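Dig into this one:

. . .
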Amino acid sequence: MTLKEIIQAIDALSPEEQREVEKHLAQRKSPPPEPTGYMMTDEEYHRRIAELIEQAEPVEIKAGTMDIDKLTAAVEKMREGFTQEQLNEIA
């Protein structure tokens, strides 16, 4: 259907049907509703990350060696307290 055909179809609608089309178009243009849940600000994210870094137990990694178990444990500790959505936003 072309734009011209759409306009002709709208013109053929009753006044009530045209109001419904207008209402539909107005709803599409309006901004989405505000989220109802709590969302952290960037500042809060940064503060939370800094807190986690301070609480994290340092892991010593010597040059030329790597203890995968310790590295994995360190990464898991960094991830604790964040949802997957929050981690995705950080990445």
Observations:
- The chain is about 65% helix and 0% strand.
- The chain has a mean pLDDT of 84.
- Residues 15-29 form the longest helix (15 residues).
